[in-house]
Design brief:
The chain is built from 3 helices and 3 strands; from the N terminus they run E-H-H-E-E-H. By secondary structure, it is an alpha+beta fold. It has one domain (6-63). The protein has a 3-stranded antiparallel beta sheet. A hairpin with a 2-residue loop joins strand 2 and strand 3. Helix 1 (9-16) packs across helix 2. The longest helix is centred in the last third of the chain and has 19 residues, at 45-63.
Amino acid sequence: MENKLLVPVEEAAAILSLGRSKVFELLAAGEIESLKVGRRRLVPRQALDAYVQHQREVQAVEVA
C-alpha cells in the first residue's frame, strides 16, 4: 500500500480492519479526524495512527 496523506473512508476502514459504517460512526463522534474535499470525506493517515495510539492508551489504563 502506498503512503498516501489522505485516504477515503473505505480505505481507512480496511486499514483499521473495521467496517465502513463503524468508521463513519467514529468520524461522526469526533474520534477520528477527517476533512471534506469537494464531496469526498477523507481521513489523514496520521489521524488513523492517532486513533490507534489513543485506543492503546485507553486499554492500557483499563488493564492497570
